[in-house]
Amino acid sequence: MSRTFFNLLFIGISLFFVSCSKDKNENNITETDDIAEVVTDTTINKTKLFWLYLHHEEIPGTLIETEAPRRDLIVMNAWFHEYVQKFKAVNPEIKTLVYKDLTSTRSYAVENGEDNKYLPTGVGFQYADTNHPEWFLLDTNENRLEYTGYPDHWQMDIGNTEYQQQWANQVGEELVTNDWDGVLMDNAIYTLDTYHENVFPKNYETNTEFQLAYKSMLTTINTRLKTDNKIGIANITNTRLYPGVWESYMQHLDGGLDEWWLVFSNGNYLSDYTEGFVPQINEVVTNEVENKITLVQPHSSTSDNQGFYYAFASYWLVNDGNTYFSEQEVTDAYNEPSPWREEYTWNFGKADNTYFQVESGVYRRNFSHAIVLVNANETGAVEVNLDAPYLNEMGEEVISIMLNGLNGSVLRKVYEE
């Protein structure tokens, strides 16, 4: 067991010392016994939350009244466009995005030989099947590629420039007509056999070639969206396994969704290794530098406090105001809003700087009202001695904590209470 001692000292600031300069990593000390001292920093810095609502049932008005003020961004299916104004009426600042699959068209969205008016895709199946069968992606045996596990999802050739333009125009017009702020584009994929393992498309020989086709499509869509000042965010989950993909796709986007962020299920967490913890949280760092949005979704539950705090503390390691958080317990069960927690009301204040490594696999970030610590090692514990009382997650005053492997902790300054 390793022992790491942090000198965590309260910052005593008065108007007399405003003009005094200190190194940004140096602690300022004041001689006072009053833990309720006034801090001049008035920054409000709380968790931003998003809600993926991809269900087919109506959203009750009472739920909108409750959840709209709590959420900063919501994604809904196209046929729920009337909810855009309902959410905005309660929370004018909320971002509203429509869900559209980038990569597929869906034959279930056809009735009586006609595409539904509002689609989960950019191009209707019936339209493509009748007018542009060449838009469908084929395998090496000339068969259309269907998503394994998702019946009636037919993969399209995203490198086809006519398909790109049709998708961009259809979705762009829909965003304007129905007052959406933007679009969440699902399945910006980057490997040839995604959704059909070891079955490959005939038109692409390498992942690199496939990725170039996606970047071409994202460029076409981005150009169209910018004419109407709309937001384009894409789901590009698990790019930590493919270095450079996140950054290259982000050149053509306003943000990204990582659908499997750090916590995969109760007790199953991403640790610190070459393709693990740091590459995944650094996706957020990349976006924050460019003022781009990141939606991070850990698969924790209300019964998994360890998983929640591991993801929550990690979120605060990297969040600078453009990152949105949402727990999702059940895969693809995008109906109810994520559980509301008191932790989402905590004000972290101003960040001193970016996160830094304390020792191998252990990371920290300081805020004016809190500190966050994450031990991303599989095993091992770190004892942190505090030089002043802090509040732990349970609201208890502590002067030290023991941080086990795959755990996170958020410690709040006592005088904030």
Q: What is the topology?
A:
Blueprint: E1 2-3, E2 48-53, H1 61-67, E3 73-76, H2 83-90, E4 95-101, E5 104-106, E6 110-111, E7 114-115, H3 125-131, E8 153-155, H4 161-177, E9 182-186, H5 207-227, E10 231-235, H6 245-250, E11 255-258, E12 263-265, E13 268-269, H7 277-289, E14 293-296, H8 305-318, E15 323-325, E16 356-359, E17 362-366, E18 370-375, E19 381-391, E20 397-404, E21 407-413
Parallel strand pairs: 1-19, 2-3, 2-15, 3-4, 4-9, 9-10, 10-11, 11-14, 14-15
Antiparallel strand pairs: 5-8, 6-7, 12-13, 16-17, 17-18, 18-21, 19-20, 19-21
Helix pairs in contact: 4-5, 7-8
Question: How many β-strand stretches?
Answer: 21
The total count of helices amounts to: 8
**Largest beta-sheet details:** 8 strands, parallel, barrel
What is the residue-averaged pLDDT?
Answer: 90
Q: In terms of structural class, how would the helical and strand content be classed?
A: alpha/beta
**What general form does the structure show?**
globular
| Largest sheet: spatial strand order | 2-3-4-9-10-11-14-15
Question: Can you walk me through this structure?
Answer:
- The structure is a single chain.
- With 417 residues, the chain is of the alpha/beta class.
- It has helices spanning 61-67, 83-90, 125-131, 161-177, 207-227, 245-250, 277-289, 305-318; strands at 2-3, 48-53, 73-76, 95-101, 104-106, 110-111, 114-115, 153-155, 182-186, 231-235, 255-258, 263-265, 268-269, 293-296, 323-325, 356-359, 362-366, 370-375, 381-391, 397-404, 407-413.
- The chain starts with a strand and ends with a strand.
- Helix 4 (161-177) packs parallel to helix 5 (207-227) and helix 7 (277-289) crosses helix 8.
- The strands form five sheets. An eight-stranded parallel beta barrel has the order 2-3-4-9-10-11-14-15, surrounded by four helices. Strands 1, 16, 17, 18, 19, 20 and 21 form a seven-stranded mixed β-sheet that branches.
- The chain is built from eight helices and 21 strands.
